[in-house]
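User: Quick one: structure for sequence A, then sequence B.

Assistant: Sequence A:
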Amino acid sequence: MSITKSRLPQFLRFATNPSLSQKLMLIGLAITLSFILLAFLAPVLQGWGWLQDPTDSLINPIHEVPSAKYWFGTSRQGYDVFSRTIFGAQAALQVVLLATTLSMAIGVPLGMVSGYVGGKLDKVLLFLMDSIYTLPGLLLSVTLAFVVGRGILNAAIAISIAYVPQYYRVVRNHTVSVKTELFIEAAQAMGANTWQVLRKYLFFNVIQSVPVLFTLNAADAILVLGGLGFLGLGLPEETPEWGHDLKQALDALPTGIWWTALFPGLAMALMVVGLSLLGEGLNEFINPRLRK
């Protein structure tokens, strides 16, 4: 109840007189929601005939410049760049949502248990997570992608492992600081077991930074997915994906076919910027001290 009351004046100030960073957060939210809406409506628009099938090429494949018929032009393979860009957002959101959810589902419980139980379990998990954290995220994802293969779920698994230590470290540090509070000791004195303490008293007090981490990891995961697609390790080749399309566009750039690289690259950059702005704004909203 006290948390809700303390957030209310902050929310009213945000609604009536948002700061510059809060305005940027709203811009990030608008960009993110736009991509989500486009990804959700892509099959509907295709069914209405407003979008070409992104996996079908023209009868006589030849690159078309952007025009009223082909808004983003066509590639050398005859694919409609606009359609592949829109459906690429759908693939990116599916993989990113799965990857960040998997890493959060693993890292948060491990962090809570490790921080609360302590002892040898805490030391072993700390060593394991620190070992994973020292590896470059893209390199780790590329290595795992070789093992698990292509596909939406496989790409999400390959990407998610790199983010587990981040959730673990944040939640574990919060748990270590919160478990010494009086309300935790009171719950223990009343006979609450470890599971009850973790579920009823610790969980909602240690996950305040998780939404921020979720959005920032989602932004990074888009770049990692693009890297996997560029290397030919992400999704199947026929699946519209921004990184794969950028790889295909490399050969076309020297011949002046610039639009096949511009629009997928711009879409990827915009989505990363939107999620990053949203994450930074959430971080400031949750931690008011950052404004100073």
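Sequence B:
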Amino acid sequence: MFKGILIEKDDAGYRASCKTLDESVLGEGDVTVRVGWSTLNYKDGLAITGKGPVVRRFPMVPGIDMAGTVETSAHPDYQPGDAVVLNGWGVGEVHPGGLAQRIRLKGDWLVPLPAAFTARQAMAIGTAGYTAMLCVLTLERHGVTPDHGEIIVTGANGGVGSVAVALLARLGYTVVASTGRPQESDYLKRLGAAEIIDRAQFSAPGRPLGKERWAGAVDTVGSHTLANVCATSRYRGVVTACGLAQGMDLPASVAPFILRGVTLAGVDSVMCPRPDRIVAWQRLARDLDPSLLDLMVTEIGLDDAIDTAAALLEGRVRGRVVVDVNR
């Protein structure tokens, strides 16, 4: 028996609760992990509250992330006692996830925990930070270097945004942080942002083209914000898109792409191939200052996850939420 969050949907409705579970809720897999830490991402908030069609099988243990220790393994790459990290792969959506004290899954989904991080620090990074690193790698792959100009990060107070600001600043980029919470300016500047701007200038319908400014972008918002970032990108600028906090629509013009050669690069973290994940985590170990993680983190116990999920969707949570599943 072990403790976890369980989402159920039946004639009584949709509900999430923290309860004692047994192995019948575990999914198929060749590795069983004793979970130490998990986290809450935007997708977890949608799953727990039922405000988005994230969960596709019921009952379901949510949680797209976890860090823990291998208990049993039939996978050649893992032995009992190994420290591992999980991000995505449909866990918490179609396969029981990490907001529980135990998880069973395919070993091919796991990544060894980098020695630079504790399990708690790995979850302070989580899918949000791993996605931010994938965005940085995409900018690099398209040739965007610090001398090219400013990089804008939208939704900068969120999990992806916070880590993206910290990573880009440490790598020498000039980072402009867009946020709807100006009271958090000091926080963003401590992470490395050179300038803070109000998200309002991006969130309404804009023109097909605006004044050129951005050499690159990490967009976590979508909709009009993404369209306006593209419209104000410099010639051959690169915009990475990884989120939909404002919406899934893209009310944009082709003008930035055919007149300025702007690249819009989608970044997916869920089904990202394992070799790319390993590179991302290696780069996080090299390029992210672990001391900054404490600035980003709110720590909660498993019992607090349901209420915090609602606060996360309402924009009342700064940075990252780590969940100690054993308290």
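The first strand starts at residue 2 and ends at 10. The chain has two domains: 2-113+292-324, 127-266.

User: Thanks, that's what I needed.
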